[in-house]
Amino acid sequence: MNDQRSAAAILQTLRAIKPELEADFRVERVALFGSYARGNPEADSDVDLLVSFKEPPSLLGFLALENALSASLGVKVDLVMEEALKPSIGRRIREEMLPA
């Protein structure tokens, strides 16, 4: 794994672009979870992000955010809306997530 794709580097980038995310996409919170948060990503791992919105986005808005985050991080992003989490998986995600 190269240093640019470490959890710390991902979180640093997310914190740097957070004002844009809030203004452009009405993002309230974003957190890293999954293999990067656990410290065991594979070379082909995507970045799993949990996101909460101030206002629910349209489908196109959601996809635009996912694409913008992928471009900013330089790796495919899998975006999950916090509001859509099922309780069983939500508990696991919340235990391992790293807020940005």
Low-confidence stretches: none
Give the mean pLDDT: 92
Largest sheet properties:
4 strands, mixed
User: Strand-residue fraction?
Assistant: 15-25%
Strand tally = 4
Helix coverage percent: 40-55%
Q: Structural class of the secondary elements?
A: alpha+beta
Number of domains: 1
What's the Cα radius of gyration?
13 Å
Q: What is the architecture at the second tier of CATH?
A: 2-Layer Sandwich
Output the CATH topology.
Answer: Beta Polymerase, domain 2
**Distance between the ends:** 21 Å
* Largest beta sheet: strand ordering: 3-2-1-4
* SSE order, one letter for each helix or strand: HEHEHEHE
CATH class: Alpha Beta
Q: What is the CATH superfamily?
A: Beta Polymerase, domain 2
Shape: globular
Number of helices: 4
Attribute tags:
alpha+beta, 21% strand, 48% helix, 4-stranded mixed sheet, 100 residues, 4 strands, Beta Polymerase, domain 2
Blueprint (SSEs and pairs):
Elements: H1 7-25, E1 27-33, H2 35-38, E2 47-53, H3 59-73, E3 77-81, H4 87-96, E4 98-99
Parallel strand pairs: 2-3
Antiparallel strand pairs: 1-2, 1-4
Helix pairs in contact: 1-3
